[in-house]
Amino acid sequence: MHRILWLVVAAAFVASLVVPETEPPATDDGCPPRDLRVPAPYAVTGYWVIPRADPCVTRRMVEAIHSIGGDTLITFGPRFAAGRPGPDFAACRMDGRPCAEPPGVRVRRVYTYVTSEEFGDDLLRCPGIDRRAEAEGRVFYRLSLARTCTAREHDLVLISTDGDGIGHLIREAAAYGMTVYPGLPAAPQRPGKPWEPDLAHTAALDAFTARVLAGYRARFGSLAAFGGVYQSFELAARGRSERDPIISLYAAQHAVVADALPGKRIVVSPYIDARRGRGFPPSQVPAGIADIAGTRAGLPMAIAVQDGRGTGKVPVHGPHEAGAAVAARLRPVVGAVTNAEAYYGSTADYLEAAARRVPDGVELWVNIEGFEPTPAPGECGRVDPQPPRGRTTKARLDQQIMATASHVSKIISYGWDPFFTCQARYDTPSLADDIAAGWRQPIIVAAHRKELNGRAGVQVEGYNLRGGTLDFGGTRVAQEWYGRTSRLESAWAPYVPTSPWTPITATNSAGESSTSPYVMR
Q: How are the residues of the chain apportioned to helix, strand and coil, as percentages rounded to the nearest 5?
């Protein structure tokens, strides 16, 4: 068997997906009716999103993602921050005084949490301390995190929320048959080392996490759309020491999840960094995956490895391109050098290493980064918060899919807004528009020699392959067999490769062409 590497592939479009002809019934909530069709299913099936306080804005966002094949939504958890309240709490007053000063209570620490979700009355447990107030369009909560309401000292958390963004998201996802993973409260960061959690606050974080998850269980526990939670504190997918602070955080917080939400999934998205001198080689990834899996506390876990292309930490190329110059959009990160000089390996190398030993109870996903390391002139993207990022292309996303899809069970992407929705001008298409227009393009993710009925040939795997031909370095052969699993399609044609690097061109039944950078060795 021979694996695919990289090529330039011509391809064409498959027949349009059959969708329901009837319109869904109108709703009575003031929002437009839902459109449940999926006219442009793409290989990416999940996205990070921002919860919205407006239910109609939420519906439009969920519908747009669903229309291109999305079935999974993930949110980042707000920061559970240590320290006195800032401007988000300026309007908050309780009992005629600032909300951080409950009368007659000795306060040890104050934490803040700025979010977009509602909390039920069961969140309020200690009379005279736990309170709810409204001011200037926001809702504020003050909660004690002490073990008992009569404790001598209390840690307080002050919550500011603009509405029920999480609730809107889960309810819309339920209507579209999708799944949501809200972010766990993100741990306080260590002063001077923001990439590490401050473990001095673990007990307070765990107590608050338990309160939040109890609310989720009460509100959403019966909904299939509530799939579990996302671990918001990031770490690298490499082997870690026994005293690693992030693993310690994971173990503690995931134990809280297991107690509050038995059977629900935890999603983690570790990053990889292939830069020489700053990153680590692919050989370290399996140990990192094992360390993360060890924190799942008996729950199912999905580990969605960040592919690194959007940040410039990992290139997308084949082994035969190690000596080639890095892509132009990567030069601001690593300079005008070759791939081998800049990096330990490519995205395909790291995902292949991750797939070698997937621990029990874990699904391996990939998080393809849907942006460029820096913006180009005249290009939309993200300016704030730092660092600025640029808009990528569907062709680049296709390359990331080609490099990773054969190793994982699901492809998700960071992040929907602004990277998939922004427009340089009002009359230019967004990345999501480009996906909707070009979703039929074949994407080859693997190929190998395979005999069929005693005849030598090549089987190609990927997306949108049905019908047409497979072209091997200029030799065009008609497809003679087609099949599909729940995720990938396969097409076979009789051909014996005659050169070390054979380009593969897939043309499907629509006869329109596109490109793909894979070759078979």
A: 25, 25, 50
